[in-house]
Each structure stands twice: as structure tokens, then as C-alpha cells.
């Protein structure tokens, strides 16, 4: 949430009230003058008169450098780890050991402990957070529990949609959203909790009624450096359960026992796609999904709850989506919902934007999907699913790239996976951000089979258009990596771009412009 959104409903909270919850080492300045707080933020650009500015030492810069500017903009109080010299009277400085923790504590109090009035469900894992979170949100809303959602670039509640910059916002943005949700009548919220958020204490102090672990595979190693550190970040979520809280784990993932290490066995709900009972993990409750049929549109599944089995059609393709659904069902069970009701609600969900989303009709009789696979594991899962479920004699075509300013180790891996699983590969730009797009493609190419069939087309729109022209009868085209995104970021500038729209335009052109026979193979 940005400054102007915060201003839309300015709250005035006595500073004294916030001071009660912050572990201060030292206070310097005039406590009376600081008066009422009008906003809590760690970004000097969001400061309004009366704000409490929290100076955070970051990875790119140090928030202490912006204290003067925050004060010039009217900040009445400043939380910092080091009190600067030479800044005028009238400001109260609050020295703390950890400014990120203080930010979370101050924000929680400023927004009137809204987080305590919500049942909060957190979902972490490398892939599947958005899908699983949206399934849980839909299930709870369908059961009459007004439930908000906070996740990849979007917050929704009570018919409202608020765009977000991050998957998990900074603490002050998060608590502001909780307040709005409570005021809007929400009783629950499902939120994606990224490993960055856990490391950077964005969710410090929040208590989760349920915490879900989807899976762990290489990602964000530019930030965490090792898989051990990445896993440890995710594990932190499971220390933040409410006394009646429970953990839902993908038992088929080798990291599940690590996530469960500090959770009491009776609070562990294990989900598996296999009937085999693995004894390496003590589970309070076990859930098993038996896939009885699968097509490119859906899977037929028998969901085994602790005492009942319910048959359900999962209208999202791929066994990984069956696991997402099973985890959502386990959350519902833990919250006391009836298995039949859970399955009825979940079977109504037929699409999650940008996730295995089928787009338009190809005039040649093939089909196209947009998917947000931007990690090696996601690309592997999606391509394997489409490969297994497509017509045996047809081809699988993939268009993808890798984001700039992100984990570079993903690039050759994704190149290898695409060239092993797809019949035709076009590598192109994702969001190059500040990197040279050609250099990103060079790194993807390093993992690819050079004898295989692939093209390199730097312009994503052109890559999609060429891919569409390659679709023949029964062929399947996957455009991967950007899913729901409505922009492409090149050289630090974001311009409108939608894989879905680009596909529709290319398909329409290819159908209109080409003589019938050229659409046939
Ligand atoms: C690694 C990471 O997540 N960094 C985020 C983090 O940076 P940081 O704490 O190191 O802060 P910094 O940029 O060094 O700045 C230090 C402090 O100075 C402040 N500042 C800075 C400039 C200024 O003019 N005034 C000012 O007060 C900043 O607000 C900050 O408090 O806090 C910044 C302020 O909120 C974010 O912009 C920044 O996100 C970067 C840009 C980012 O891209 N993050 C991504 C990777 C991210 O968070 N992704 C996760 C996971 C996605 C997923 O897998 O789903 C997410 O949750 O979205
Ligand atoms: N359970 C899963 N296991 C592996 N891959 C998955 C799973 N669920 C979804 N995917 C793949 O990962 C992609 C991203 O899915 P989703 O957006 O649900 O994950 P996410 O964890 O929210 O991602 P992000 O970290 O970007 O927020 C999907 O488009 C699909 O390709
Ligand atoms: N949550 C991921 C999203 C990546 C999406 C992909 N399109 C890219 O830009 O790399 C990240 O911020 O790393
Ligand atoms: Mg997400």
C-alpha cells in the first residue's frame, strides 16, 4: 500500500500507545511534541506530517540516510538503530536493536491489532502458493466465511482489488490491509508468505491459525545463497502458529520433516498423492488424493480425509494442482468444515488467472496455455503434465525466458528442462529488468541441447506470434513465466504486456491472415 492509499483513511493514534509495544533502548527528544501518529512507514517517500518513520538498514541502501528527508516531510517521530546527530528539535527518536521488528510492532499497534481479529492462514513454498491460497479463499468464501487474500501482486477482499508490488507486503502495508479487511467485514485472510518476507520480518508477530507448506525447490538463491538457508527461512512460518493452529505439509516433498521439526505431531496435517504411509514424519492427520482419471482440463480424484473419502473433479490440470487442492481441503478440515462441503466448494474453482490458463482457440485445431512457471520445478511440472496429457502424435511447443536481477542459476536449468520436454522451444525475454536480455538468453542456452530444435527471439510479442504460427492440429503451445502479469519490465521501465492478450491477437491474426491450408500441417 502506498502513501496516498494510507492517507485515504488517516488514523490518528497517540504515540504513547505505540511506545508501549516497542522495545526501545533509548528515547531522545520531546515526547509530548510528538503527539499523535498519522502514518507508520519505513519509506521516507511515504511520510506525511505526523508520521512515524522507521529507518531500516537494507540490502541496497540504509534507511538512516533518509531520516533528514523524513523529518523535512513532517515526521514527528523516528525509530532507528542509531540516533543521528544534528537534526532539529521537535522530533522524538526511538532507538531500537532491530528496526524491522519495531516496524512490525508499531504497525500492528497503529492499526489497532487488526491482525488479532482475523483468522490468518499463511501459505509458503517455492511453487503453488498463489494457487493454493486462492483455492482456500474461494472455499472459505463459499462456506460463508468472509475471507480476504493477500498474494502475488494483489489483495482482494469484499469485492475489492488492491494492486500490490510484492507477494508479501512490508509490515506496515500488511497491517494496513488487515485493518481494511476487518473494517470491510472479513473474518479471515489467506496470505502468501514469501521467504523474503520471513527473512525480512515482514510477518513478525503475526499468528497463523494454519500454515501451509507446498514444496521446496531451487529459487531465490541470489538472496538466500544456499538451499539450507532458503529452507530455514520457510521454516520460520511454522514457529508462528496460534495455540490452536496447525501445519499442513506436502508430505511428498523431502523438506516436509524439516518444516515440521518444531511443530507438535498432533498439529501436523500430512498431504500425499501416495497411499504409502511414510514413517519419517509423525502426522496428527493424514490426507491422501488418489487420482482416478486425468485430462488436459481436469483430474478426477478420490480425496481421502481421516474418516471419509469424497470424489471430486479438480478443474485445474496436472497432479501438482491435485496436491494444491488437497492442501486446501486439509485447511478446510482443520477449520472444522465438513468434507462434502469442502469438496463442493473446491470443485467450483475452474481457473486461477495465469496458471495453466487455456487461451482462445487456434484456427489449426491446436491449443495454447499461459502459465506462471518461472522456476525449474514449475516448468518441469507443467511441461510434463502437458506432454503426458496431449495427443500422442502432436507436438509440444514452449515459449519462455527468465527474469533479470533474479537467481541466475535457474536459467540453464530451465533451458535444459525445456529442451528435454518440449518438441519446439522458443527462448525469449521475460522481465529483463536491468540486465542485458541477450545475456540472459545466453545463460538459458547453456543448459539446452544445441542439436535440439529451438529458436531465439528476443522480442516476446514476436516470439509468441511465431509460436502461434507453428501450432498444428492437436499441438499444444505453452507460454510460460509471466502468467497473470500485465507488464514487461525492460531497462527498469514497465510497459503493458500480457501473454494472454498477445496470444489472442496472434491467434486472431494467424486465423484471419493465413489461407486455410497454412493453418494445417
Ligand atoms: C530483497 C528484498 O526483498 N528487498 C526489498 C527490501 O529491501 P531492503 O529491506 O533491503 O531495503 P532497501 O531497498 O535497501 O532500502 C532500505 C530502506 O530505505 C528505505 N528508503 C529507500 C529509499 C528512499 O528514498 N527512502 C527510503 O526510506 C526503504 O523503504 C527501506 O526501508 O525492502 C524494499 C522496500 O520495501 C523493497 O523494495 C525490496 O524489494 C526488492 C526491490 C525486491 O524485488 N524484492 C523481491 C525479490 C521480493 O520481495 N520478492 C518476494 C518473493 C516473491 C515470490 O517468490 O513470490 C515478495 O514477497 O514479493
Ligand atoms: N504444487 C506445485 N508444485 C510445483 N509447481 C507448481 C505447483 N503449483 C503450481 N505450480 C507451478 O508454479 C507456477 C506458479 O504457481 P503459483 O503462482 O501458484 O506459485 P507461487 O508459489 O505463488 O509463485 P510466486 O513465488 O511467484 O508467488 C504455476 O504457474 C505452475 O506452473
Ligand atoms: N515472485 C517471482 C516472480 C518471477 C516472475 C517472472 N516473470 C520474473 O519476472 O522473473 C520473483 O519476483 O522472483
Ligand atoms: Mg504467488
Folded structure, characterized:
It is a single chain. The chain has about 525 residues and is of the alpha/beta class. It folds into three domains: about 100 residues, Udp-n-acetylmuramoylalanyl-d-glutamate--2,6- Diaminopimelate Ligase, Chain: A, domain 1 (3-Layer(aba) Sandwich), CATH 3.40.1390.10; about 240 residues, UDP-N-acetylmuramoyl-L-alanine:D-glutamate ligase, CATH 3.40.1190.10; about 150 residues, Mur ligase, C-terminal domain (Protein-Tyrosine Phosphatase, Chain A, Alpha-Beta Complex). Helix content is about 35%, strand content about 25%. The protein is built from 19 helices and 26 strands. The protein has an eleven-stranded mixed β-sheet with strand order 11-10-9-12-8-13-14-15-16-17-18, sandwiched between helices. A six-stranded mixed β-sheet has the order 19-20-24-21-22-23, with helices on both faces. Strand 17 and strand 18 form a beta hairpin. It is globular and about 75 Å long. Ligand UAG binds next to helix 8. The site of adenosine-5'-triphosphate (ATP) has 23 residues, from helix 6, helix 12 and helix 14.
Question: Could you list some keywords that capture this structure?
Answer:
single chain, 521 residues, alpha/beta, Udp-n-acetylmuramoylalanyl-d-glutamate--2,6- Diaminopimelate Ligase, Chain: A, domain 1, UDP-N-acetylmuramoyl-L-alanine:D-glutamate ligase, Protein-Tyrosine Phosphatase, Chain A, 3 domains, eleven-stranded mixed sheet, six-stranded mixed sheet, 26 strands, disordered C terminus, binds ligand UAG, binds adenosine-5'-triphosphate, binds 2,6-diaminopimelic acid, binds magnesium ion
